[in-house]
Each structure stands twice: as structure tokens, then as C-alpha cells.
Design goal:
Helix content is about 10%, strand content about 20%. The chain has about 325 residues and is mainly β. The chain has 2 domains: about 140 residues, no CATH class; about 100 residues, Immunoglobulins (Immunoglobulin-like). The strands form 7 sheets. The chain has a 5-stranded mixed sheet, with no helix packed on it. Strands 11-16-14 form a 3-stranded antiparallel sheet, with no helix packed on it. The chain has a two-stranded antiparallel ribbon with strand order 1-6. Helix 2 crosses helix 3. The radius of gyration is 30 Å and the shape is elongated. The N and C termini lie far apart (about 80 Å). The mean pLDDT is about 90. The chain binds protoporphyrin IX containing FE. Protoporphyrin IX containing FE binds next to helix 2.
């Protein structure tokens, strides 16, 4: 283990240092652990998820299978010994090592989605994991890879992609699917469905047929576009006796999310105009006013910018016409 000790573990489950987990302390009490993983218990009887822990329970120890490989006990390999009730088990903070087939298509990575890209996974392993837990597997060590080696490792992982899976071709074609896709908006706000619950969105995945699709589906994590407009409001001041030409003011329309954001803008008053009223973010249309024909006073209008899958943004515009 990371602390140099020896422990029995459930086959295929390791602490790769994704989250912090202190493991069992000297007094036998569980130390702080962000995520117990396999160390958790389940059901009304709090049964351990781990096989090793399960067989260490007094009522099961008699059925405990012999442990074939204790690395410090090579003479015992030919004579496997049963699991002992007080033997150290490497369970808390361990997770099943997932298969890496088609791994390119299944971001985000790790049990908590902590790595968004394969490059982030490789950087994680290159720095020897994020937490040097007591149970950390000894194979998790800084790797000192060069940039070229990291890229080669990412390319290697991408070589595990089956193009039939990427394009959903037979035998990986599928019927029409409707998948629950969370709630629109974000952590801070959702739409109320009228009963105090969040409106749910559903993702429709059409049937593909055996030939699959021409363009691969985007990764489910691809963030939706998020419309952002600056400034939040615009004010023009014009002098009635010296109207001249008022300088325009630029709106900054940006996409703070992912994908493509195609916007269009509307307003209602004839004295207000935009240099262009639709486009693909980022865009900087110029807002202009033409006060000719207006009298002294304060005039208001609102520019409303809309984009598919985005909440509309409104920008109040005030035109203040004074005499001098
Ligand atoms: C440079 C070598 C390695 C690469 C490129 C690699 C790659 C990966 C990738 C891509 C994942 C994410 C899989 C997913 O989320 O579907 C993963 C997870 C995992 N790997 Fe590795 N791995 C490496 C070394 C190791 C070693 C040495 C161990 C065992 C000691 C290990 C144990 C695990 C475990 C337990 C997980 C799941 C972790 C979690 O979900 O929190 N890996 N690995």
C-alpha cells in the first residue's frame, strides 16, 4: 500500500488517489474519508460492499476463501491461507478499475467525474494521483512523462475506440431512446413545474438503423451554450439644440458555455437600432440611437437577445434628451 504496508484487497479495486481517504487509524476508527467507495456498507444490516470485509465478519470468517497471493508471503503461495479476522484489508476509498474500451467516448472520468478529458487523466497519473492516502496503490507514482509521452498515451487510449460504437453502427445500433437529462438551468436556479419541483428535460436520441449515423453524437457532457451580454444596460444622452451624431455603443454577446450560440436581437422603438441583429457569438453589434424628431425627455426601449436553448437576455436602453 501507499504506506508501505501489506493488505488483502478485493480483486480489481484500488485507491488511485482520486479523493482523500485517511483509512483506518491505529485505534481502529475510520479516519476522514471523502468517499468510502467499496468501504461503504449497504442495507438495514449495514453489510459491507467489500468481499474481504464481508468474510471478516465473525459469522462469515469460517467460509472465508484462502488468499492465494500475499506479496510478502511467497512461501505461502503454494499453500494459500484463509483470510484472518483482524487482517488489514485495503478497502476504504477504493474503486473498481474500469475497463478502458471506448474510453474516449465516456467522459467525464473517475467515479466522481473529476477529470473531463483523457489528457487530464494522464496528467493526474503523471503527478502520482491527487491524494497520498494510506491505502493508495503503490503503483500510483509520479511518472515524469514528457509532453510528447503524455500525448502518445492519450493517443494510445483513443486507440481503444471502436468506430462502430462511435457511429452507433451495427451491432451497436439502437432504437429510439428517451433519456432523462436533468433539469434545465444550473445549480442556482431551475424552472418550477408548478408543484415546487424542477422541470425535467428529456434527451431524445433517434433510432439510427444498422448503418449508424454520419456524424458522431456529441459527448453527453458537452455543455450547452450560455448567452451572456454586456453591458447590462445602455444610456445615451443627447442635446436637443445640438443633436449631431451620437456615438454608438457596442454590445458584447458571448457564449459562456459550449457548442454554438446563434443569437438574434429585437427592440421596438424606431429611434433605436443595432448595426446587425443576428449572428453567431462572439459578436459586437453596435447600438445606435437617432433622436431626430424627438423632444426633450427620457425615452426607453429594451433590446431582447434570444438564442436557442438559452434564457433570453434583456438590455434596457435609456435615451435622455436635454435642451442644451
Ligand atoms: C498511466 C497509467 C494509467 C492510465 C492511462 C489509466 C487510465 C484510467 C482511466 C482513463 C480511468 C477512468 C475510467 C473511467 O472513468 O471510466 C481510470 C480509472 C481508474 N484507474 Fe487507471 N490508469 C492508469 C493506471 C492505473 C493504475 C496503476 C491503477 C491501479 C493501481 C489504476 C486504477 C484505476 C482505478 C481504481 C480507477 C477508478 C478510479 C475512480 O473511479 O475513482 N489505474 N484509469
Amino acid at each position: 500500500m501507499g504506506d508501505g504496508g501489506i493488505a488483502v484487497y478485493d480483486n480489481g479495486f484500488y485507491d488511485a488517489g482520486v479523493r482523500s481517504c485517511a483509512g483506518l487509524q491505529a485505534d481502529g476508527v475510520q479516519g476522514p474519508c471523502d468517499d468510502l467507495g467499496l468501504g461503504a456498507t449497504i442495507g438495514p444490516q449495514n453489510l459491507p460492499l467489500s468481499n474481504s470485509r464481508f468474510f471478516q465478519r465473525p459469522e462469515n470468517i469460517a467460509q472465508a476463501p484462502p488468499i492465494a497471493t500475499r506479496p510478502d508471503e511467497s512461501p505461502l503461495l503454494a499453500n494459500p491461507q484463509p483470510l484472518q479476522i483482524d487482517e488489514r484489508v485495503n478497502v476504504d476509498g477504493t474503486f473498481k478499475t474500469p475497463g478502458l474500451r471506448n474510453i474516449e467516448l465516456t467522459a467525464p472520468y473517475f467515479h466522481n467525474g473529476g477529470a473531463l478529458t483523457l489528457r487530464q487523466v494522464v496528467d493526474f497519473y503523471n503527478r502520482g494521483g491527487d491524494f497520498h492516502n494510506q491505502n493508495l496503490d503503490p503503483d500510483i507514482q509520479p511518472l515524469n512523462l514528457t509532453t510528447t509521452e503524455k500525448s502518445a498515451l492519450v493517443a494510445f487510449l483513443k486507440a481503444f475506440t471502436d468506430e462502430r460504437v462511435r457511429y452507433e453502427r451495427a451491432p451497436f445500433d439502437h432504437p429510439e431512446l428517451f433519456l432523462s437529462n436533468g433539469a434545465p438551468l444550473d445549480n442556482n436556479s431551475v424552472f418550477n413545474d408548478g408543484s415546487g419541483r424542477a422541470v425535467q428535460s428529456t434527451k431524445h436520441i433517434p433510432a439510427v438503423g444498422r448503418g449508424g449515423r454520419q456524424v458522431a453524437d456529441s459527448n453527453f457532457l458537452d455543455p450547452p451554450p450560455i448567452l451572456a451580454v454586456q453591458p447590462g444596460s445602455i444610456t445615451f444622452t443627447a442635446k436637443l439644440l445640438n443633436l449631431g451624431t451620437l456615438p454608438g455603443q457596442a454590445l458584447q454577446i458571448t457564449n459562456q458555455g459550449g457548442g454554438t450560440l446563434s443569437w438574434s436581437a429585437t427592440n421596438s422603438k424606431p429611434w433605436l437600432s443595432l448595426s446587425f441583429a443576428s449572428g453567431t457569438a462572439p459578436s459586437s453589434p453596435v447600438v445606435s440611437v437617432n433622436p431626430v424628431g424627438l423632444v426633450v425627455g427620457i425615452f426607453t426601449d429594451t433590446i431582447t437577445i434570444t438564442a436557442p436553448d438559452c434564457s433570453p437576455v434583456t438590455v434596457p436602453v435609456t435615451l435622455n434628451i436635454t435642451l442644451f
